[in-house]
Specification:
- There is one protein chain.
- The protein starts with a strand and ends with a helix.
- It has one domain: Rossmann fold (3-Layer(aba) Sandwich).
- Helix 3 crosses helix 4, helix 3 packs parallel to helix 5 and helix 4 crosses helix 5.
- 40% of the residues lie in helices and 25% in strands.
- The chain is of the alpha/beta class.
- The strands form two sheets. The protein has a six-stranded mixed β-sheet, sandwiched between helices. Strands 2-1-4-5 form a four-stranded antiparallel β-sheet, with helices on one face.
- The structure holds adenosine-5'-triphosphate and magnesium ion (MG).
- The site of adenosine-5'-triphosphate has 9 residues, from helix 1.
Length: 247
């Protein structure tokens, strides 16, 4: 399923945060967004997922559409959009009082009305996919960061999304743990998932991204194939940004 965001504007108070942002993610592709802190990356993903309203512009995820700043249409849109689009955050957001299996099966049981046996079977299938079936009865406090993030991915997958939005999902993890999470995302990509990721993992972007987009001050400065943007961008600001990331 594809994502099309057209000329999205969003202000907080009087400050423009997204300033005519246009970005497309074709179905089955992986797009990586990079850019300085405060450039609007998280705000953009939150708008796409209906967690934040937009002032103007249009968002389309598959057939689900949002036209500009119509607050009345905002709510139904966001619940529809979240049926096809999952989001994973930097800080995992697991339910601390629920087991790993409980975290993964809560939404399918409650929202999709799966019975307990079906939800459990789906839960184990997804935990197997992220390599954590033996941890089904653990609680989040007993897991490493990488394991928590893999549970968060399994939990998002439980709703059978067609698109996943990932906001710096490895930035709080040690280098070895980053890889276990990035490997899971690469596997999802190979299975056809459409991925829009904010990440500064340049190695991953070079290997897995179909397109890299550099965002600054709420708009796209330059976009293109990873090699072009990460190794020979036209804009010198990107070159400086990437050399700082590498140092
Ligand atoms: N709910 C909010 N109310 C007011 N201002 C906000 C809100 N959310 C974000 N902002 C402001 O919008 C700007 C963009 O924030 P955002 O979190 O989207 O940046 P970012 O590119 O994700 O940065 P980082 O790389 O640090 O995660 C920041 O200046 C932030 O302070
Ligand atoms: Mg952010």
């Amino acid at each position: 399923m594809n994502i099309k965001a057209h000329e999205i504007c969003k202000t907080f108070g009087k400050r423009p945060i997204l300033d005519g942002l246009t970005l497309e993610v074709p179905s089955g592709e992986t797009v990586v967004i990079i850019g300085p802190s405060g450039s609007g990356k998280s705000t953009f993903l939150r708008c796409l997922n209906g967690l934040q309203s937009i002032d103007s512009g249009t968002i389309q995820v598959g057939d689900h559409k949002l036209e500009a700043s119509n607050e009345k249409r905002f709510s139904p849109f966001s619940s529809e959009i979240r049926k096809v689009q999952g989001m994973i955050f930097q800080d995992f957001n697991l339910f601390p009082h629920m087991s790993v299996l409980g975290n993964v099966t809560e939404a399918p049981a409650r929202v999709l009305k799966h019975n307990q046996a079906d939800a459990r079977a789906l839960g184990f299938e997804l935990l197997k996919k992220v390599g954590l079936e033996s941890h089904a009865n653990h609680y989040p406090s007993q897991l490493s960061g990488g394991q928590k993030q893999r549970v968060a991915i399994a939990r998002a997958l439980a709703m059978k999304p067609k698109v996943l939005l990932c906001d710096e999902v490895t930035s709080s993890l040690d280098p070895e743990l980053k890889h276990e999470v990035l490997d899971v995302l690469e596997k999802l990509k190979s299975e056809g998932m459409t991925l829009l990721m904010v990440t500064h993992e340049i190695g991953f972007a070079k290997k897995a991204a179909d397109k890299v987009v550099f965002l600054a001050e709420g708009k796209v400065v330059e976009e293109g194939p990873p090699q072009q943007i990460l190794e020979s961008p036209e804009n010198s600001r990107i070159r400086t940004f990437i050399s700082k990331l590498m140092s």
